[in-house]
Amino acid sequence: MFKSLKDNLSHRSLSLRYLFALTLIALLVTASTFSFQKIIADERYASSTIDRAGDERLLLETIKAYHIAYLAYRGEPRQAVFHKKLSDAATALETNHQALLDREESQNLGGEMIPTVRALYFDEPVQLNKQISDYVALARTLLSLSDQELDEKPILSSSFIDRTDTLLNDMHLVVKAHVQQSENALKKMAQVELLLWMSTIIVLMLEAFFIFRPMIKTITQQFFSLETQTQTLEAKVIELKSTQTELVKSQKIASLGRMVSGFSHELSTPIGIAVSAVSQMQEAADRITYEININVINVQSLKVNAEKLNETAGLAANNLARAGRMVENFKQSSIDRHSELTREFNLKKLSKDTVYNLSHQLKNKSVTVQTNCPDHLILDGRPGLIEQLITNLITNSLAHGFPDKGGKINLDWMLDSDNQNIIFNYQDDGLGIAEAILDHIFEPFFTGQRTGGSGLGLYICHSIVTQDLSGTIRCESTENQGVKFLIKFPLQVDMKKHHDAVLVSD
């Protein structure tokens, strides 16, 4: 009990450590993702701002050229053309600049102006925003003057050219600031990437020390435990052989040799399942050890292999325990069936545990089992008898009722209307039993379409129900339509406890 509690606590601790490690990695990845997204958003915004600045520089060069041409063609027809082009260029400059201001205010690109660029646009001494507004106003003023007024105010044209050059230089400062920002962003991304790599390596090292190493220790302990159980089973097999010899000598059953042969066949199933499970555990452990040795740790692969180890360990342990119980039950039923100690047991749990012990055979045949039983039906008796009854019926169905894969089996337990008897209805949808042999299926060593093999399975069922449980068993079947066993036995004095609270449906 204390060992089991200790194992549960150990598994819980490993699970919590594993969950913490995964959470930490998730946080690191999330943090790095948000950091990169922020840097990318800022760079996307900066790139758009550079494009706008480039457009403004191009427009300034265009306006300068159109202004010079406008002055050069005074008094000629082409002056009107350049007047229109100059006016359109000034309007385009104003529109482009306004779009920049609107975007900065709404931040619809997911970023914002870097402080250096913002200062160039809005703070003294540069104040690009004011310069561009004044520049556009000056351009429109020049366009509104007549040729005579232009001759009278040559300083306006000169000032316009000077402002154009100044704006071009200041726009260059904007581009330069963004280039510097991009370089800084690349450095920051490199630092974040390095930090993420180092953090991931540290987390993986901690996982190896606090999770993988204890997990390997647990796996090793499970192997030792299975080895001990195997040795115990071997000792029981030797004991069984000794019992066989004694029974043959006593001649308590004339055909004991065939009975033991049939039992050995039954015993090989759980042993074979256990050996197969141990082989699968070894493969999973080898994969985990290989990944650790080559320092390539795949968290998902480790999780899958750990789950497989846990599943196969449970399957091996259950089948080894089942084999041990079979040996003990056979010894007791062969020498003195009534020597088995009675105890309280939950009928539904016993049924489901028995089905689980046969899960490998059921899976191979693609046969499903549905158990219907009141949740709290507690009996006081010999659980080994019920387990053997269910096992023999299911094994018989698998061997002879389902030659092809696929089918269903129903186990229905209930109390009769007077709460005096247990009713057990077993039904499969397999091949059924031919009418010609239906009356002989409970005879010892009888073999036929559905009762081949040792010929003892259904005989033992009949013996358990009629002799040990003082009940009745009968079979109903139509060939190719499945089989149904109707079993009824009294709720004996020593099995009558707690039956008043058992009528809770599944």
Top keywords for this entry?
alpha+beta, Four Helix Bundle (Hemerythrin (Met), subunit A), Heat Shock Protein 90, five-stranded mixed sheet, two-stranded antiparallel sheet, 12 helices, elongated
Brief overview, please?
By secondary structure, this protein is of the alpha+beta class.
Write up this protein.
It is a single chain. The chain is α+β, with helices and mostly antiparallel strands and 506 residues long. Among the domains are: 28-209, Up-down Bundle (Four Helix Bundle (Hemerythrin (Met), subunit A)), CATH 1.20.120; 343-506, Heat Shock Protein 90 (2-Layer Sandwich), CATH 3.30.565. The chain contains 12 helices and 7 strands. The strands form 2 sheets. It has a 5-stranded mixed β-sheet. The protein has a two-stranded antiparallel ribbon with strand order 1-3.
Please give the CATH architecture of the domain at 28-209.
Up-down Bundle
Low-confidence stretches: 251-256, 493-506
Number of helices: 12
The largest sheet has its strands arranged as 2-4-5-7-6
Distance between the termini: 30 Å
Largest sheet: 5 strands, mixed
Number of strands: 7
- Mean pLDDT over the full residue set: 76
Q: Which CATH first-tier class of the domain at 28-209 would you pick?
A: Mainly Alpha
Helix content: 55-70%
Question: What name does CATH use for the topology of the domain at 28-209?
Answer: Four Helix Bundle (Hemerythrin (Met), subunit A)
Helix and strand run: HHHHHHHHEHHEEHEEHEE
- What general form does the structure show? elongated
Strand content: 5-15%
State Rg: 45 Å
Secondary-structure-based class equals alpha+beta
